[in-house]
Design a protein that fits this description.
The complex is a heterodimer. Chain A is of the alpha/beta class. Chain A is built from 8 helices and 16 strands. Classes of the chains: A alpha/beta, B alpha/beta. The complex binds flavin-adenine dinucleotide.
């Protein structure tokens, strides 16, 4: 049977994480139908139709879906679920919120954050902040899965699948959107898609210093900016920059950790990066145990030099 | 009780002020600072003699519920744990923080989130809470499912990843940490909210409150009483260590670092 893949988007553009989840879906096998749900999403549906391996795009374009609240989105997905034996989505904030709802309404288990498809019903997933990897097999008739996007390559945009319009069922009206404070990263690549990530920790000491020391390096490298929980909790960086077990999971070509000690919860979010650089004053900081290049130094000296030396 | 609060409240002009009953599920998990080990036969994670605590997100949920009570917005905070007998310790910690009473559903089986959500639904149907605050994920299985499943099974509103909860009459305004920043939604009560790290900083229980907690009631039930199928849907085939990274080299200067990144790693 077929696979229903929930597309991730911000109302403006299709997220790269959808392309990565598509390649996970390809490994499972079966016709892939991508569901684009939102308000005014025809452009996004058009982009999803280009994803390699996609048989068709289902577009649910309705004002009630504009903010992708979980309750109406789950009702929509349940209305479509009968035709599918696998329902899959990248593990984004939206999907993490709606997919367990869908699973519960279908009375099936969810397998969260798969990092490998072993077979159509067997998957690998990290537990304990990535300190162990479990191989699990589902016994349910339908499989509900979220995908750790960083673990899969992005499918290419070489296709032109048909776009079919689906109706949005009535909004259960349980919750309403009030406001959003988004887009702190204008002009910078998305954290989960960036080739280079420069991250700052508690050592930065203030939002001003974070901005003065980390951002110039990120700008010159065309990098996304990340942060440790300590830096976010202290207000040096916004919440959507947090990398880690309970933040974003990244696996860029280059991850530069500045003034971050390397707690297991932080490592959980970045230890699959290709090259890790650690800049830390403390030669015994655990971050050095995973770093390809370690520099024991004061970041306030190193980072300005680093930025100056870059073209 | 309700009448007293309603008349003394500023917002009674908007209708009857709701004095909530809040339910908070808590899970006993490996302490966040422990580096766990996988059993050599790949049958699971070695939990023998490992320090166990309340799941940090549940601690945040308990704290939030108690703050509502202290602010006069909740009349009772009930904590519930589904797990081995030792979960009683976890419940005692929640009682020491300030919860009023506890329910323990004892089971030696490792229940999946769907089974936990079904039992919690059973508890919600007798306790009739106005708000259920669930930790966004347990730091052992990292599933991030229970709150959402519970909300779906109850047919209630949900808001995940809360960093702020405000309650007025029959509505809750929740600020959520989402991928692009923050989103605020309004829920009709009763509702399920899952807590994120920045919702609050949980208190440490004082010695007198730890003593007092010893006398607070813990009601014990079994999963069988709920008459639901809690058998596992997933088979764990094996548990392995992740691929480990080896420490690389130390560089001595910014110049050397740049040089290595350019000519050796070729990433910039
Ligand atoms: C349930 C739970 C979930 C969590 N989730 C996350 C998560 O998702 N992400 C996350 O990051 N953390 C998470 N944490 C927190 C984690 O345990 C650590 O507390 C946090 O990562 C520490 O942040 P840090 O490395 O910035 O701060 P610290 O551990 O305080 O490290 C600061 C480092 O800066 C170095 N330093 C100081 N001054 C300088 C200088 N001038 N130059 C160079 N180096 C300097 C110090 O040597 C030190 O190593 C979680 C914790 C819990 C309990």
């Amino acid at each position: 049977m077929a696979i229903l893949l929930l597309a991730e988007h911000d109302g403006v553009a299709l997220s790269e994480q959808t392309a990565r989840a598509t390649s996970a879906a390809q490994k499972i096998g079966g016709d892939i139908h991508v569901l684009v749900a939102g308000g005014g999403v025809s452009g996004i549906a058009g982009a999803a139709a280009k994803l390699a391996g996609v048989a068709k795009v289902l577009m649910a374009d309705d004002p009630s879906l504009k903010n992708q609240l979980s309750e109406p989105l789950a009702v929509l997905m349940i209305s479509l679920a009968g035709n599918y034996d696998t329902i899959i989505a990248p593990a984004t904030a939206t999907a993490k919120s709606v997919m367990p709802r869908v699973a519960a309404l279908l009375d099936v288990a969810q397998v969260s954050e798969i990092i490998e498809v072993v077979s159509s019903d067997t998957f690998k997933r990290p537990i304990y902040a990535g300190n162990a990897i479990q191989t699990v097999q589902t016994r349910d008739a339908k499989r509900v899965l979220t995908v750790r996007a960083a673990s899969f390559p992005a499918a290419e945009f070489t296709n032109s699948a048909p776009v079919e319009i689906v109706a949005a069922p009535a909004d259960p009206g349980l919750s309403t959107f009030v406001s959003a404070a988004l887009a702190t990263n204008i002009g910078r690549p998305d954290l989960t898609a960036a080739k280079i990530v420069v991250s700052g920790g508690r050592a930065l000491g203030s939002a001003e210093k974070f901005k003065d020391v980390i951002l110039p390096v990120a700008e010159k490298l065309g990098a996304a900016v990340g942060a440790s929980r300590a830096a976010v909790d202290s207000g040096y960086a916004p919440n959507d920059w947090q990398v880690g077990q309970t933040g974003k999971i990244v696996a860029p070509d280059l991850y530069i950790a500045c003034g971050i000690s390397g707690a297991i919860q932080h490592l959980a979010g970045m230890k699959d990066s290709k090259i890790i650089v650690a800049i830390n004053k403390d030669p015994d900081a655990p971050i050095f145990q995973v770093a390809d290049y370690g520099l024991v130094a004061d970041l306030f000296e190193v980072l300005p030099e680093f930025a100056d030396a870059l073209p | 009780m309700l009448a007293i609060f309603a008349t003394s409240s500023k917002s009674c002009a908007k209708g009857i002020e709701r004095v909530m009953k809040i339910l908070v599920p808590v899970k006993r998990v490996v302490d966040a600072n422990v580096k766990i080990r996988v059993k050599p036969d790949h049958s699971g994670v070695d939990l023998a003699n490992v320090k166990m605590t309340m799941n940090p997100f549940d601690e945040i949920s308990v704290e939030e519920a108690i703050r509502f009570k202290e602010a006069g917005k909740a009349k009772e905070v009930v904590v519930v744990s589904i797990g081995p007998g030792k979960s009683e310790e976890t419940l005692r910690s929640a009682l020491a923080m300030g919860a009023d009473r506890a329910i323990l559903i004892e089971t030696e089986e490792q229940l999946e989130p769907l089974a936990v959500a079904k039992i919690l639904k059973g508890i919600a149907s007798t306790e009739k809470p106005d708000l259920i605050i669930v930790g966004k994920q347990a730091i052992d299985d990292d599933c991030n499912q229970t709150g959402q499943m519970l909300s779906a099974l109850l047919g209630w509103a949900q808001a995940t990843f809360a960093s702020k909860i405000e309650v007025e009459a029959d509505r809750a305004k929740i600020t959520r940490e989402v991928d692009g920043g923050l989103q605020t939604v309004e829920l009709r009560l009763p509702a399920v909210v899952t807590s994120d790290l920045r919702l609050n900083e949980p208190r440490y229980a004082s010695l007198p409150s730890i003593m007092k907690a010893k006398k607070k009631p813990i009601e014990k039930k079994t999963s069988a009483e709920f008459g639901i199928d809690i058998s596992p849907r997933l088979t764990i085939l094996k548990t392995e260590e992740p691929e480990s990274r080896k420490a690389g080299v130390r560089v001595q200067s910014t110049v050397e670092l740049l040089d290595k990144l350019k000519s050796e790693a070729r990433v910039i």
